[in-house]
Amino acid sequence: DAGVTQSPTHLIKTRGQQVTLRCSPKSGHDTVSWYQQALGQGPQFIFQYYEEEERQRGNFPDRFSGHQFPNYSSELNVNALLLGDSALYLCASSLVGDRGTDTQYFGPGTRLTVL
Amino acid sequence: SQQGEEDPQALSIQEGENATMNCSYKTSINNLQWYRQNSGRGLVHLILIRSNEREKHSGRLRVTLDTSKKSSSLLITASRAADTASYFCATDGIQGAQKLVFGQGTRLTINP
Questions:
Q1: What would the pLDDT profile of B79-95 be if each residue is shown by its tens digit?
Q2: What is the pLDDT of residue A2?
Q3: Does A67 contact B at CB distance below 8 Å?
Q4: Do the chains contact at B41 and A42, CB–CB below 8 Å?
Q5: How many other CB atoms sit within 10 Å of the CB of residue A52?
Q6: Are the beta carbons of B34 and B47 closer than 8 angstroms?
Q7: Among B48, B58, B49, B2, which Cα is nearest to B25's?
Q8: Rounded to an integer, what distance in angstroms lies between the CA atom of residue B33 and that of residue B110?
Q9: For residue range A87-96, what is the model confidence (pLDDT) as tens digits?
Q10: d(CA A79, CA A50)
Q11: How are the residues of chain A apportioned to helix, strand and coil, as percentages rounded to the nearest 5?
């Protein structure tokens, strides 16, 4: 049973470029959340996708967008990259229960460096 | 913004000793979870405690939750070198709010 997978592992971009990060959820999970973790900080919620729609969004600009596919996998897109977008991007999957957030299982992350 | 605050920010103990980390949060919650992170890699889920629970055990881990004080603690007993990592608490809000809000973490170092 594969856990959450993310690609690529590392990525280097320059300011102004666009980037796409990918995530495949744990088998049986239907919900994908994305988090940004700056060095030395805790992860910050970007948004969550369920049934191919954005269900909730954190305090991130519109440069951050996403998509969920029918097979529950997801993409995170960031446009017009800034130096401050350099971070570890974490994907988490879950199976939403009726008591709020169920356990979220995280992937290994994508380390994005913006030069 | 971060909801939770872990205390201490860093903790260094000898192998075999117990490690206690604390987490405080600001708003009402549905669940509180603890995660471990090794060297900037992905987060590993350790334990989830619901708002109507006061204590939970999993192996060498013991978590307590005091909703009246909006605080939680994670105790790791008989620590091992492999427990060296950063530990984060994460909360989710009531009424089905889906996002997790993390604190800044406690960096735990176990000295052999």
A1: 999 999 999 999 987 65
A2: 73
A3: no
A4: no
A5: 11
A6: yes
A7: B2
A8: 22
A9: 999 999 988 7
A10: 22
A11: 5, 50, 50
